[in-house]
Structure formats: structure tokens, C-alpha cells
Specification:
- By secondary structure, this protein is mainly α.
- Helices cover 60% and strands 3% of the residues.
- The protein contains 16 helices and 5 strands.
- Strands 2-1-5 form a 3-stranded antiparallel β-sheet. Strands 3-4 form a two-stranded antiparallel sheet.
- β3 and β4 form a beta hairpin.
- α2 runs antiparallel to α3 (45-84).
- The chain is extended, with a radius of gyration of 32 Å.
């Protein structure tokens, strides 16, 4: 793996097209100068073209050599990749849930580009995808259903949406690179009512970090060794009086801790408030919280759905590859369309919905077969309930209580 990393670093340094682009630009400059000369003096056309021949030929040869070097570097890296990661046939399946939903895929790609700040690329992609979608609809003589329109691309062409993401990246840039929280604080203040409805503490956390930043200063090193610490303490107190006083009813304890830390100013690292004031991850944590709330107010998840789907697929792929080998050996097939036949362990952050597996049938509940809670409090799937009861009173499979199917309640997860 070390050889692969070393070759990757080498490729990133030397395997770029920057030199080729410079040579191409020189060729373009030569041609532009020649055109201007001919336009100014048409009688010198033959002489100008004759003079231009060798420089252009030499410049194009330089571009060819540059590209040849890049191809060699890419070839070496590709060989190492093939050697390190053996080519395996991907699992095959007849049922593709997304094959009939190109609008969903295009929307996910476009939204990912917008969320990453690639606005010009997103604009080009949206134009091409819309054009292709129109051509496909004409060729197949089909009209879009209401659901397809809802997940279409028109909503992503909104200039307001692009401005929102541009504003988000501007605030994140100020926060991460400049340690400037003021744009984020101003945004949170404007969205205060909406954040309160979400019971979000983002506005207070931003003000709290601003207090700490003013108190210990922007410089690195121990707070106890920084000069002008008394000035920092005064700035933090002034800021708390002006900007944090309205948080007192809800965050009184936290405000008391912030002000109480001032008494330990000469010895903050050994104080009970050390963890609050000396936290190397504070800026990353507040940036993550800001991104989550910003996207939530736009009706979006904090992380890109495309990134999450690709990562979850990469985690699950080895399980499916192994499953396919076992199924071929045993001569069995994957018979379920809406449920995977093996358990795939995903990180907790990738678990978005609760699931219920019926203790009787051992099958996962679906919209067509929802979980049903009996009066005794035990839960089984609807199909299991009907099989057990046969539309009459029956005994719960897990306790002595008896009930009727009509007494069961559907659970929503």
C-alpha cells in the first residue's frame, strides 16, 4: 500500500496538465499575434505565416511530449492499482430499482454538485440532463407522471437555491479559514424563529464559541501564556452583556459556567472549565452543526444523499459478492426485491429509519405488511396476525392474553 500511496503523490505532483496548458496557451498567443499582424498589414500574410510555421510546430511538439509524460505516470499508477486491487466481477441482479427512475439519479447528482459548491458544473449537468430527459420523453412518446415531476430537475435550476448554497460556503469559509463567526451568527440571528421551532441550540453555541474566541484570542498556544489576557477577558464580558443576555432564561447554567471561568483566568488549563475553553475540535464541530441546520432549513439532509448511497453501497458490496458466490455454489437465487437477504452492518450515522422484524415470521415489516400491536403490548406483522387469528379471537404467541384482530393497532415508524 505504501508504494501505491507514493505513486499517487508522485502522480499528483507531476502527472498534471498544467505544463501542457501553458504550452497550448503559448501556441494560442502565437496564432493571435499572427492574426493581428495580418489584419493590420494584409500584404505581410505570406511572410507572417512562414515565420509562424516553425514556432507552432515546436509548440505542438512540446504539448505532445507533455501529454506523453502524463500518460506514462497514469500508466504506472494504473498498473499498481490493478496489482493491488484485483479485478472482480460485480454481483449481478435482474431487478434494478433505479433503472426506471433516471430523474431521481440525475437529481441526486445535481444536488451533490450544488452542495459541493460546483455551481458551474451543476449548471452544465442540469442543462444536459434536462435536454436528454426531453429527448427520451419524445422518443418513447411518454409523459411525466406527477411523482416524476416532483423529483425532476426544474427545482434545482432555481437561482435562489444556488445563492443559498453559495452563502453557506461563504459562511463556512469565514468560519474555518478565517475563524470569523460573525457571518454565521448573523445568519443564525435572522433564522432565530425557525431554529427555535427545531429546538436548535446553534445560535447559542455560535455565541458561546465567539465568547471563548474573544476570551482566549485567535492565537495558538496556551491561554495562560498569551499576552493581553485581561483585555481578552474584558472583550468577552462586554460581548456576553451585549449579545448573550437574551439566552439567560434557556441557557443560564451554561452562561454561569462561561462567566465563572473568568475567575480561573490565570490558571484556566487546571480549572474545571478546561474542556469548555480548550477544545481543538470546537471549530469543526460548530461547522458541522451549522451545515446540518442550514441544510435542514432548506429541507435537505446534512450529508449528500449521493455520497451516503455510494458509501453504503461500497460497505455492502463485499457482502453481496460473497453472497453471490454462495448462491452459485448452492444453486439458489435471490428471490426478494425489496429486502436484502443478508444483514449489512452500517455505521450508526447511516441508520435513518427504524425497522421491525416480525418475531413470528422473521420477515421485515413493509408498508403492505405493517407491524401491529395487540392490546397486551406485543407486536407482530399484519400477515402473522391474520394467520394466527383467522379473523377470530386468538391467544398472543408471547403471553396468555387473548384478543381480536380488530383490537390491534398499526404502528408507524
Amino acid at each position: 500500500m505504501e508504494a501505491l500511496i507514493a505513486e499517487h503523490e508522485k502522480l499528483s505532483k507531476s502527472g498534471t496538465l498544467s505544463k501542457s496548458l501553458d504550452d497550448i496557451q503559448k501556441t494560442i498567443d502565437l496564432l493571435i499575434n499572427a492574426r493581428e499582424t495580418i489584419a493590420a498589414s494584409p500584404e505581410s500574410t505570406l511572410k507572417t505565416l512562414a515565420t509562424l510555421q516553425n514556432p507552432v510546430k515546436s509548440s505542438l511538439e512540446d504539448v505532445r511530449k507533455d501529454l506523453e509524460d502524463v500518460r506514462k505516470q497514469q500508466g504506472k499508477y494504473a498498473k499498481l492499482l490493478d496489482k493491488r486491487f484485483k479485478d472482480k466481477v460485480l454481483p449481478q441482479m435482474d431487478y434494478d430499482a433505479l433503472s426506471s427512475q433516471p430523474a431521481l439519479i440525475n437529481r441526486a447528482i445535481a444536488m451533490h454538485l450544488l452542495r459541493e459548491g460546483q455551481f458551474s458544473v451543476a449548471s452544465t449537468f442540469l442543462t444536459e440532463a434536462t435536454r436528454r430527459q426531453s429527448l427520451d420523453a419524445t422518443t418513447e412518446d411518454m409523459t411525466m407522471t406527477g411523482t416524476e415531476q416532483d423529483v425532476g430537475l426544474d427545482s434545482l435550476k432555481s437561482e435562489d437555491l444556488r445563492k443559498q448554497f453559495a452563502n453557506m460556503y461563504h459562511i463556512l469559509h469565514q468560519m474555518k479559514n478565517e475563524q470569523n463567526l460573525l457571518p454565521a451568527i448573523e445568519w443564525a440571528r435572522e433564522k432565530s424563529d425557525e431554529l427555535d421551532k427545531r429546538v436548535s441550540n446553534l445560535e447559542f453555541e455560535l455565541g458561546k464559541l465567539q465568547f471563548i474566541w474573544l476570551f482566549i484570542g485567535p492565537h495558538s498556544g496556551s491561554p495562560n501564556t498569551r499576552p493581553n489576557i485581561l483585555e481578552g477577558r474584558q472583550r468577552a464580558l462586554d460581548y456576553a452583556r451585549q449579545e448573550l443576555s437574551h439566552f439567560r432564561p434557556r441557557y443560564l447554567k451554561e452562561l454561569q459556567q462561561l462567566c465563572g471561568a473568568i475567575a480561573f483566568c490565570p490558571n484556566l488549563e487546571q480549572s474545571p472549565y478546561r474542556r469548555m475553553f480548550i477544545n481543538n475540535d470546537a471549530w469543526d464541530q460548530i461547522a458541522s452543526a451549522f451545515t446540518k441546520e442550514f441544510c435542514s432549513l432548506l429541507g435537505l439532509s446534512a450529508d449528500s444523499p449521493l455520497y451516503i448511497a455510494a458509501t453504503a453501497g461500497a460497505i455492502a458490496l463485499p457482502h453481496f459478492s460473497k453472497l453471490e458466490i454462495i448462491m452459485k455454489a448452492k444453486g439458489t437465487e435471490w428471490t426478494t426485491e425489496h429486502e436484502i437477504p443478508v444483514e449489512v452492518s452500517l455505521p450508526p450515522s447511516y441508520r435513518f429509519h427504524s425497522i421491525f422484524v416480525c418475531p413470528v415470521s422473521k420477515e421485515q415489516a413493509t408498508d403492505q405488511n405493517p407491524p401491529m400491536m395487540m392490546p397486551c403490548g406485543h407486536v407482530v406483522a399484519q400477515e402473522s396476525l391474520l394467520r394466527l387469528s383467522k379473523n377470530s379471537r386468538f391467544k398472543c404467541p408471547y403471553c396468555p392474553n387473548e384478543s381480536h384482530p380488530r383490537d390491534a393497532m398499526e404502528l408507524f415508524m
